[in-house]
Amino acid sequence: MFDAHVHIFDPRFPLAENDGYLPGPFTIADYRKRMSRFDIRGGAVVSGSFQGTDQSYLKAALSELGEGWVGVTALDLEATDEEIVDLDRAGVRALRFNVKRAAADITAMTLQALRAHDLVGWHVEVYIDGKMLTSLQPVISKLPAFSIDHLGMSDEGLPYLLDLVDRGARVKATGFGRVSMNVANTLRRIHAVNPEALMFGTDLPGTRAGRPFRDSDVDLICDVVGTDMFAVLEDNARRFYRLPLHRQAAPTAPFHKPEHPTLPIRRDDLPKPSDDTIPFPAIER
């Protein structure tokens, strides 16, 4: 599985209050403990509003997490080309437009996003309430590649979100505890428009959400998308972040790590028919 949306709050690095709220620590060790039941083989660490444009925590997190992990960051508008290239070398692959939680100069951010895409191929990830999506039309139409966080947050923007999906936008299947919509129906409609659009993520630790990620959220996704579950749980995001795919050895392998995994049986080890097996007589028609 690829977790396309997780936040890391490491007490070694500074945080700033947002609307009077400051999250508690949520370290890489905390994340690994919480997700120990799952076979997580990569993901995206996303900068939150509390982290501003600080890149030190993100570089440290990506270094510790290692291969298969990428970063999504908020960047100082004065950042140079050299800083962008340096972050790309560290594993950053996208800019985040936090329109819901932070004041933003959308025009300047768009120009920066176009520059980052030209330099290193970064896309943009937009955190916004769906009912505001139409107001971003002038911006979104200029972005070469982008995704929308948390299913677009509300039903009000779903028709416009589906239109964006039809034109190539990706959507994070995350934050089910912070949205105001029928999650299953929204997943189904997005997936019907473009099976490559949905990307699973936990949104851990679920700061300020109505509820954090539950293991059953994975079951819900699998129930909705059926045989496309591997694409939604891993491959779609890997392609979007320009990472190599992990080929599945067995399409029916469980996502939860079993206590006693079943070993495959080789063809040569299958039981042989006994010599006294009596064939069925031919049936005359």
Tally of individual helices = 9
Strand order in the sheet with the most strands: 1-2-3-4-5-6-7-8
Helix content: 25-40%
Mean pLDDT: 87
The assigned structural class equals alpha/beta
Shape: globular
Parts with pLDDT < 50 across at least 5 consecutive residues: 249-285
Give the ordered list of helices and strands.
EHEHEHEHEHEHEHEHH
Largest sheet: 8 strands, parallel
What is the beta-strand fraction? 5-15%
Give the distance, in angstroms, between the N- and C-terminal Cα atoms: 54 Å
C-alpha Rg (nearest Å): 22 Å
Give a structural overview.
There is one protein chain. The chain is an alpha/beta fold. Helices cover 31% and strands 12% of the residues. The protein has nine helices and eight strands. It has an eight-stranded parallel β-sheet. Helix 7 packs across helix 8. The radius of gyration is 22 Å and the shape is globular.
Write the topology of this structure.
Blueprint: E1 3-6, H1 28-34, E2 43-46, H2 56-65, E3 69-73, H3 81-90, E4 92-98, H4 106-120, E5 123-127, H5 137-140, E6 146-148, H6 158-166, E7 170-173, H7 183-193, E8 198-200, H8 216-225, H9 229-240
Parallel strand pairs: 1-2, 2-3, 3-4, 4-5, 5-6, 6-7, 7-8
